[in-house]
Design brief:
By secondary structure, the chain is α+β, with helices and mostly antiparallel strands. It folds into three domains: 95 residues, no CATH class; 48 residues; 33 residues, no CATH class. The chain contains six helices and nine strands, in the order H-E-E-E-E-E-E-E-H-H-H-H-E-E-H. The strands form three sheets. Strands 1, 2, 5, 6 and 7 form a five-stranded mixed beta sheet that branches. The longest helix has 14 residues. The C terminus is likely disordered.
């Protein structure tokens, strides 16, 4: 490998890898962000004042037949702007590493998303090595909103498609799309 070692090749590109441990049943990676400063989500100003740190665990693509767990050291920052209403905020990782509040890396999410689209919810859930249910594979969060950023038509998603619980079969979600109402506006 030119320019990249094994540590950098096994983990997403936006991380600095501290340790790689090989357990009998999984690979454990400890990493952190490459950046020394973070941008406040409220006032958009950089801050280097670290308030505290905590650990965040992500699932990643399997390697050598073993699941990979990434433990990120995430930092909380203090906003340096006196007029900003956000005093303490958590650093955001690059979008090619993970999304905000996600428990999986972006590349694992992408693979699971394409499996769900190609095979459908239940067949993809039985095929996927990491645990994922049919609703997650089809792109629905628990609150009924789409989670995939690739859906470009926001008006159609907000006004046309809404998941509703089917009262005849309460364990399944029934998706109703009122396209006629959308197209006549």
């Amino acid at each position: 490998m030119h320019g990249r070692g094994f540590r950098e090749a096994i983990a997403p590109t936006g991380l600095v890898i501290d340790t790689v441990e090989y357990a009998a049943d999984q690979i454990l990676i400890t990493g952190r962000s490459r950046f020394r400063v973070s941008i406040c989500p409220n006032c958009c100003r950089p801050s280097a004042r670290v308030h505290s740190r905590y650990h965040r665990t992500l699932a990643d693509l399997p390697s050598h037949g073993r699941p990979v767990r990434i433990t990120l050291v995430a930092r909380r920052f203090r906003c340096a702007t006196s007029r900003c209403t956000t005093r303490i905020f958590v650093e955001r990782f690059p979008p090619d590493v993970t999304a905000t509040f996600a428990r999986r890396t972006t590349r694992l999410d992408s693979i699971l998303h394409h499996l769900g689209l190609a095979l459908g919810g239940r067949p993809a859930a039985s095929l996927a090595a990491p645990p994922a249910d049919a609703g997650e594979l089809m792109g629905w969060k628990g609150n009924g909103r789409r989670r995939w950023p690739c859906w470009k038509n926001e008006r159609l998603l907000k006004e046309g498609c809404r998941p509703e619980l089917d009262v005849r079969a309460p364990s399944y979600e029934k998706f109703k799309c009122n396209l006629r109402q959308f197209l006549t506006r």
